[in-house]
Amino acid sequence: MLADLTADRALTVVRAPALPDAAALCRALAEGGIRTVELTFTTPGVLGHLERAATVEGTNLGVGTVRTAAQARDAVNAGARFLVTPDVNEEVAEAARDLGTPIFLGALTPTEVARAAALGSVAVKIFPAKAFGPGYLKDLHGPFPGLPLLPSGGVSEGNAREFLGAGAVAVCAGTSVVPPDTVAAGDWADITTRAARFVAAL
Predict the structure, then answer these.
(1) How far apart are CA 13 and CA 36, in angstroms?
(2) Helical residues (DSSP H) of the chain, grouped into ranges
(3) If exposure means fewest CB atoms within 10 Å of the residue's CB, which of 43, 73, 170, 198 is most exposed?
(4) What SS3 class is residue 161?
(5) Could you report the per-residue pLDDT of 127-185, keeping only the tens digit for each?
(6) What domain of life (predicted)?
(7) How far is Cα 38 from Cα 173, in angstroms, rounded to an integer?
């Protein structure tokens, strides 16, 4: 999981009021160069979307905004290959260990980052990254050298390269690549174009 993410340097976080065809979305993103896709529990019917997209070849499909162990188990049963939390959630981390599923725990402060790493986070998601900027990742790598950090929130093609330069293992692409309205409309050609533009900016 981490090897693929490091190679691509990006994953896409999808939040949308509706998702007409999750498999088509994954194929559109992969065509644009982003193979790791995070659907979220904020999207209605996310478990069904996971089931429909889980067999898309070449896509690493996971789920985010996981808040409970039950959600973690349901997501993995539906086909999720990794889990993401918005916080340092010990319940979900324990479930991920039991399931043998990679997890990215959300953190911000040095104390939270250390706790997330201790709980087995494959990479620690730094959220909201835009609040402190790329320099904050460089600061975190002082006491935590070599710890994989994954900035999320406010990352765009305009600043993604700076985050990578500051030591991020990869970056999370959000609404700049998958605008909710565009996803809901099923405009897959536009999604491919946006993904390709984001990857080119890296």
Answers:
(1) 9
(2) 2-8, 22-31, 46-53, 69-78, 90-99, 110-118, 134-140, 160-165, 180-185, 188-201
(3) 73
(4) helix
(5) 999 999 999 999 999 999 999 999 999 999 999 999 999 999 999 999 999 999 999 99
(6) Bacteria
(7) 10
Question: Is residue 45 a contact partner of residue 38, using CB atoms and an 8 Å limit?
Answer: no
Residues 6+ apart with CB under 8 A from 98: none
pLDDT in tens, 74-96: 999 999 999 999 999 999 999 99
- Residue 100: CB atoms within 10 A of its CB come to 7
d(CA 201, CA 111): 32
Buried b / exposed e along 108-135 (16+ C-beta atoms within 10 A): beeebbbbbbebebbbbbbbebeeeebe
Is residue 133 within 8 A of residue 175, CB to CB? The reply is no
Contact 40, 47 (CB under 8 A): no
